[in-house]
Structures are given as structure tokens and as C-alpha cells.
């Protein structure tokens, strides 16, 4: 009887000691602080990138660009037309003739 009483007491002690399982910190003890810092850092980098791309786009759109292109050499094997296109004398992706 004494042995069963001792076994019951030790079982009750083990049940009393059980607590919630501990959280595993897989080498990230201060993850919340690091995550917030990284998020703020990348937010700043994103805004800086947006500003840089906007400035470069404005510069590229405002600088001059040539309006007159040189005519390519009239090679005899290019632009052979055996019959007219339904939309005119030029190919669909060619520049238009000056007289049209």
C-alpha cells in the first residue's frame, strides 16, 4: 500500500510540474526587433528607388530626340512589292511615305 501511495504521489508531482511546451527560438532571440528594422529599411530603399526612377524618367522624356531619320540605303533586294497591300504602299510596320 505504501508503494502505491508513493507511486501516486510521484505521478501527481509530475503532472503538477508539466507546463506549456517552451517555444523554440531557432537562433532568433530578437526577431521582432530585427523584422521591424528590416521592414523600415526596405521601405526607405523602395521610396528612394521610386524617386530615382521618376527623376530618370523625367530627364529621359524631356531631353531632345531626333525627328529626322536617315533613309537606309536602297538595296535592291529589300521592299520588293509584287502587289499592293490593302492598307497602302508601305508595310504594316514601316514608316509612311512622305507623299501620303
TrEMBL record:
Chain residue ranges for the region called Disordered = 1-34
Q: Any idea which UniProt keywords this protein has?
A: Membrane, Mitochondrion, Mitochondrion inner membrane, Transit peptide
Keyword Lyase assigned: no
Source domain of life is Eukaryota
Where does this protein reside within or beyond the cell? Mitochondrion inner membrane
Any Pfam family from its record, for instance, is COX6A
Q: Which GO terms describe its molecular function?
A: enzyme regulator activity
Q: Does Transit peptide appear among the keywords?
A: yes
- Could you give one GO CC term from the UniProt record? mitochondrial inner membrane
| PANTHER family named among the record's database cross-references | CYTOCHROME C OXIDASE POLYPEPTIDE VIA, CYTOCHROME C OXIDASE SUBUNIT
What's the family?
Belongs to the cytochrome c oxidase subunit 6A family.
Q: What is this protein called?
A: Cytochrome c oxidase subunit 6a, mitochondrial-like protein isoform X4
Q: Which organism is it from?
A: Cinnamomum micranthum f. kanehirae
Amino acid at each position: 500500500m505504501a508503494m502505491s501511495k508513493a507511486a501516486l504521489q510521484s505521478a501527481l508531482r509530475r503532472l503538477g510540474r508539466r507546463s506549456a511546451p517552451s517555444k523554440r527560438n531557432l537562433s532568433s532571440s530578437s526577431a521582432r526587433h530585427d523584422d521591424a528594422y528590416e521592414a523600415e529599411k526596405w521601405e526607405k530603399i523602395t521610396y528612394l528607388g521610386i524617386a530615382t526612377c521618376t527623376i530618370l524618367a523625367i530627364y529621359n522624356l524631356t531631353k531632345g530626340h531626333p525627328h529626322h531619320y536617315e533613309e537606309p540605303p536602297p538595296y535592291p533586294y529589300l521592299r520588293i512589292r509584287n502587289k499592293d497591300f490593302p492598307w497602302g504602299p508601305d508595310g504594316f510596320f514601316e514608316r509612311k511615305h512622305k507623299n501620303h
